[in-house]
Write a structure and sequence with these properties.
The chain is mostly beta strands. The chain contains 11 helices and 61 strands. It has an 8-stranded antiparallel sheet, with no helix packed on it. Strands 48, 49, 51, 56, 57, 58, 59 and 61 form an 8-stranded antiparallel sheet that branches. Helix 5 crosses helix 6 and helix 9 packs parallel to helix 11.
Length: 942
């Protein structure tokens, strides 16, 4: 939240005007969360003009290394080479922050003067390209990322901004058209500069095909061109915000542009000196829509020129709380320009409702309800009463209402609101298409079969138990848990974290087949050998059988003549004929010896149209998929690359999976992609048979968004569970213990409705703590929160919430202190807030491989603690990072903690909304008051 000089002063703002707006913000707005002051375009030109730009004879200010510096004519404190540091110091003294606008690229005058680039032997003339120069302002050239010194220029630029203590940078002409190479260099330069700087891109609508890339690199990106005080432009934001709604993430915000409100046009690009032409009702619409969508709020008007109405828009705490705290924000319906959005308040369990009338006459906007709820008007700060069945306030033309819906009875007794039944992200776009990955989480080594009309997928959990999970789907896009086929692994004490660990070991790539009415799973552990799991029904019970022989990355195959084979091996592939119990009846036969490179593995075997196919991968982060075929299962085999692509994530190959034929004769492949910290995520790729080879994707490229498989009918959307109120007598299938648990040291029954974690062993190493309960985070972001009671902890106990991999990090209670530990090093320690109950949070952005930690004593305001975990996929563990709930002792066992609930918020709804959704006229689902969607509050038991 902040102020930007553009709508008032265009490229001509002065230091005195900036300070006047800062003084007003400090006195009137700072306490409401407004704190950024942004100096917009061309602060480096002495003689710019209003209503456009002076490109005839601009007087530029630039340093010896080709970096613009502030005009001392307009910013006197910058004289003598001080730059913007004096202005930053002025703002920081008032508790405010400084932001700057700049253009992408290198200054034209730096190129013409052949100015050197700091700390290099190259000059500006060595790194520029005249191609793709900005079409509307010609100050800069493109920086060619392939040239030596290109990154060094951006590094030097942001080192300069950091030396000025700049807090925010807005880069123009960056995302429309999309300049991905420069975006990546800017991100890297910010990360290297030694100062946290908010990164905003501009202008125009960022191409939505680049949504995930811009989300991973920028903190804000524009969803529209320049927005002015026009009802037509404001109305267009309904479709724009719906289109961009699923791409919001912590620290990454789609931006509807600044608010052209109040006194604007003083020396602006567009229009003359004026108060905004929006009606008061249109201004309510603007503020309501920006708040419920959670677009950044940057005020465009001259703050000292505010009237009382404009000030009231900026200081309504209840409305600003929607912007700051709401979750699960989403559109409900658009019925012929009667529009509704909703969101949740995670602090109270209440629901927000925004109603808009985009018609030209006042009219009721009906919102269906189920159950009784109390409704409050946030703009008027008044309770309207209790409503049931329907709520239909009359909304003025072009106006809006913003409301809070609370459970009508017993609300005061809610002490610790439990989580919503949130679930993992869906990949179904609900328009006949899907977007990869089909599960944005760590489900690697995929093997998939179809039995009748149901698809079953097995995946790898290694040392997490219950493990070897089986998932099921009706359409290959929407998956749900079927079962975990192994409760625990008893074959070695190391699986109990006794005498060692099984990190990086345990259950590896599993083969699944259905034969003679029975399900078969075949896997290997590197230490204990081969195992065979069987069941009559996919839900179990499953029987585990130790095999006399280990088969590495095995592909189990039942031939149509009744014989059974296993293809296995690494780099060189062998074939073994086995009996019904998968015991060898022949020696290993080497069938594939000449390989493209080391690492051929992950074999699955099929017989199609008279050919035997081995579907395998050349593994590693840059892995790719091949098929080998022969008329004889013993070979010789010919080989072809069927997919070598990274889906625009350099070095992240799509590889290792299964071939599947649908009921309608289509062929598909479920095949994973390495995505660093989040792990290895399954994608779904179409298969086209070309000259007898199963070629994946389209034209050699893996697909991102594509039409769904034709399975004969349409099935509903399903997603995987995440949040858990711990009300059942068993853990959900999403949970897994880090190694085998000690079942005497945890309970869901000793205090009904809570997970009780007792200290199970003594250790000083987080990775050796028994009874650490884990769950996969989901991309593109996930926020995990626990409600923790600590009154029965003992000295030396450490309990909290973490991310486990190498490196790991956690936030925890230890000896009446809150600590944040990053990979074994205590980064921060503060006295624990009063009381024995608090909330701990881990916020993960998988597209940036970053996690941060925070705490709260009221589940409303969360305060950061410690630093950032830079998540890795370390082969010593060989799984993605996981949320970890833990309690361990460094001195003596006997203490325990109670966890009331775990809540995971992540992206909800279709990853890409259908184009028709922006103008949909069908009624949305009823709005449910909190009493019908939340578990009842628990009785406090001591």
């Amino acid at each position: 939240m902040g102020w930007n000089s553009w709508d008032c002063y265009g490229p001509t703002v002065t230091e005195a005007e900036v300070k006047a707006n800062a003084d007003y913000m400090s006195a009137n707005l700072k306490s409401y969360g407004w704190n950024y002051i942004i100096v917009d375009i061309r602060w480096y030109v002495d003689n710019d003009k209003a209503h456009g730009y002076n490109e005839k004879d601009p007087s530029f200010n630039i340093d010896a290394y080709g970096r613009y510096t502030p005009s001392p004519v307009r910013f006197p404190s910058a004289a003598g080479g001080k730059g913007f540091k004096p202005l930053a110091d002025y703002l920081h003294a008032k508790g405010l922050k400084l932001g700057l606008h700049t253009m992408r690229g290198v200054p034209v005058i730096a190129v013409k003067r052949n100015l050197p680039i700091l700390n290099t032997k190259v000059t500006a003339a060595d790194i520029y390209s005249a191609q793709d120069q900005c079409k509307w302002l010609h100050d800069n050239y493109t920086i060619d990322s392939s040239k030596a010194g290109a990154q060094a220029y951006y590094d030097a630029l942001f080192k300069l901004y950091a030396s000025w203590n700049v807090d925010f940078v807005k880069i123009d002409d960056l995302t429309e058209p999309y300049h991905g190479a420069e975006l990546a260099m800017i991100r890297k330069a910010i990360d290297r500069c030694g100062r946290p700087i908010v990164f905003s891109t501009s202008p125009g609508e960022t191409p939505i095909g680049h949504a995930l890339d811009v989300q991973s690199k920028a903190n804000m990106w524009r969803t529209v061109g320049d927005f002015w005080d026009s009802w037509k432009q404001l109305k267009e934001h309904f479709a724009v915000f719906e289109r961009w709604n699923t791409y919001r993430a912590p620290g990454a915000w789609p931006d509807g542009d600044m608010l052209p409100l109040g006194h604007i046009g003083i020396r602006a690009e567009r229009g003359n000196d004026r108060m905004a032409r929006f009606t008061h009702d249109e201004q309510y619409t603007l503020m309501t829509l920006w708040s419920i969508f959670r677009s950044p709020l940057f005020f465009g008007g001259d703050l000292p020129g505010n009237d009382s109405f404009t000030l009231s828009l900026l200081t309504n705490k209840a409305v600003l709380d929607v912007l700051k705290y709401s979750t699960n924000n989403r559109p409900l319906f658009n019925n012929d320009n009667l529009i509704a959005w909703t969101a949740d308040d995670p602090r109270t369990g209440d629901r927000y409702l925004a109603l808009f009338n985009a018609r030209d006459t006042a009219t009721p906007v009906p919102a269906p309800l189920t159950g009784l709820c109390t409704i409050s008007d946030l703009w008027k700060n008044q309770t309207l009463g209790d409503f049931n069945i329907s709520f239909a306030p009359v909304i003025p033309a072009h106006g809006a209402g913003l409301y809070r819906l609370s459970a009508a009875k017993g609300r005061a007794s809610i002490r610790s609101p439990q989580p919503h039944a949130t679930r993992g992200p869906q990949s179904d776009n609900e328009d006949g298409t899907y977007t990869n990955p089909i599960i944005w989480s760590d489900f690697p080594d995929n093997d998939v079969i179809r039995v009748d009309d149901t698809y079953y997928m097995v995946t790898t959990t290694m040392y997490i138990f219950p493990g070897v999970p089986l998932l099921k789907s009706k359409d290959l896009v929407n998956w749900e848990y079927c079962t975990n086929t192994i409760d625990r692994f008893k074959q070695n004490p190391a699986y109990d974290l006794v005498g060692g660990t099984r990190y990086g070991h345990g259950q590896w790539a599993t083969s699944i087949r259905y034969h003679n009415g029975k399900f078969h799973l075949l896997f290997v552990t590197l230490d204990e050998g081969g195992y065979h799991l069987t069941a009559d029904h996919p839900e179990g019970p499953w029987q585990l059988h130790k095999l006399p022989k280990a088969y590495y990355d095995a592909g189990l195959f039942y031939d149509d003549d009744g014989r059974i084979y296993i293809v296995h091996g690494y780099s060189k592939l062998s074939l073994t004929e086995v009996d019904e119990n998968l015991a060898p009846i022949t020696k290993d036969s080497l069938i594939v010896e000449k390989v493209q490179r080391k690492g051929l593995e992950g074999s699955h075997v099929y017989k199609i149209n008279g050919y035997y196919y081995i579907y395998a991968t050349y593994g590693g982060g840059d892995g790719y998929q091949v098929a080998l075929r022969s008329k004889n299962i013993y070979g010789p085999y010919e080989e072809k690359v069927v997919l070598k692509d990274d889906m625009d994530l350099p070095g992240k190959g799509v590889h290792q999976g299964a071939l599947i034929e649908t009921q309608t004769g289509e062929w598909w492949s479920v095949i994973f992609q390495d995505r660093d910290g989040v792990g290895r995520v399954p994608t779904l790729q179409p298969v086209h048979w070309i000259d007898g080879w199963p070629m994946l994707g389209e034209n050699g490229k893996a697909v991102l968004t594509y039409k769904k498989p034709n399975v004969g009918k349409t099935w509903p959307v399903t997603t995987l569970p995440t949040s858990d109120p711990f009300n059942d007598d068993h853990l959900g299938l999403q949970w897994g213990w880090n190694h085998n648990p000690d079942d005497t040291k945890w309970s869901l029954s000793e205090r009904k409705g809570y997970l009780r974690l007792k200290t199970a062993n003594i250790t000083t190493d987080f990775t050796r703590a028994r009874n650490t309960l884990t769950q996969r985070p989901f991309g593109p972001w996930s926020i995990g929160t626990i409600s923790l009671e600590t009154s029965h902890m003992r000295p030396g106990d450490i309990a909290g919430l973490g991310l486990i991999q190498l490196p790991y990090a956690f936030i925890a209670v230890e000896n009446k202190h809150l600590v944040m530990v990053n990979n074994g090093r205590t980064i921060d320690s503060i006295p624990m807030p009063p009381g024995d109950h608090l909330y701990l949070r881990a916020s993960v952005i998988t597209t940036k491989d970053e996690a941060t930690f925070s705490y709260s004593n009221d589940n409303k305001t969360f305060l950061p603690l410690g630093d950032t975990l830079h998540m890795k996929f370390n082969l010593k563990m060989f799984t993605g990072n996981k949320f970890a709930l833990f309690n361990y002792s460094t001195i003596e066992t006997g203490g325990y903690v109670d966890i009331d609930w775990f809540d995971m918020q992540t992206r909800q709804g279709p990853p890409i909304r259908p184009a028709a959704a922006a103008s949909a006229t069908t009624q949305g689902p009823p709005i449910r008051p909190t009493a019908t969607i939340h578990p009842q509050p628990k009785t406090i038991q001591k």
